[in-house]
Amino acid sequence: MKDYIEKRVLDLSNYIADKRATVRQTAKFFGVSKSTVHKDVTERLPGINRGLAREVKRVLEVNKAERHIRGGEATRKKYQKQPESPMKKGGYSKKT
């Protein structure tokens, strides 16, 4: 494995372990794709540092278990920001 890839794997992994970051947050911070982050920490890291790989795996499992909660929160915030729709106000009605 090339040195720069090994350095990237360790940088990504340490960031996830230290910040308890998601794959998406890590990818955005380092300017790489989510696929790159995932491949680096799940396939390449165990060959470099088994202890760190176990820690990162635990963080990713927690993030995966909580993602439905984060998604629901994001949806709730999205609809709280939007003005009330005409349908909710009774502005549009169906003619019978």
Automatic annotation (TrEMBL):
Biased composition (Basic and acidic residues): 66-76
Presence of keyword Transcription: yes
InterPro entries: Spore_III_D, Tscrpt_reg_HTH_DeoR_CS
Protein keywords: DNA-binding, Transcription, Transcription regulation
GO molecular function, one term: DNA-binding transcription factor activity
Residue ranges, annotated region (Disordered): 66-96
Coiled coil start-end: none
Highest taxon above the source species: Bacteria
Protein name: Putative DeoR family transcriptional regulator (Stage III sporulation protein D)
Source organism: Hydrogenispora ethanolica
